[in-house]
Design brief:
This protein is an alpha+beta fold. Helices cover 26% and strands 34% of the residues. Strand 1 and strand 2 form a beta hairpin.
């Protein structure tokens, strides 16, 4: 069975299927990569809870940066957020994001119980 949470015309916030919660990409406002990353991760925490999961159950993270020059700032925040011993598989690349002011988009897949 597929469960969709937060359905809009274009997307669902969360799609749950066979023990995996797929979260829509999260973006946030802010003047620095650190502020945007912290805000994205706060949104992800809330979505994980809504999906019945948590940071320790993250399987994979896909991260898009509008400029790879933001990589160090992203990692500073990310490394403090990921629980020790529970780092997910992760990919990070550069892409043009939906709006010019966006620096980062984070997409998460996590197991739920």
């Amino acid at each position: 069975m597929i469960e969709r949470i937060g359905i809009t015309l274009r997307a669902s916030k969360i799609v749950k299927h066979r023990g995996i919660a797929y979260l829509s990409g999260q973006v946030a406002e802010g003047k620095t990569i650190e502020v945007q990353t912290q805000a994205c991760l706060k949104k992800i925490d809330a979505l994980l809870i809504e999906a019945g999961s948590n940071r320790k159950n993250i399987l994979r993270a896909t991260i898009w940066l509008s400029d790879m020059g933001y990589f160090a700032g992203l990692n500073e925040v990310w490394n403090a957020w990921v629980p020790d011993g529970h780092a997910p598989a992760r990919a990070c690349g550069e892409a043009k994001l939906a709006r010019n002011e966006l620096m980062v988009e984070i997409i998460i897949d996590a197991a739920y119980e």
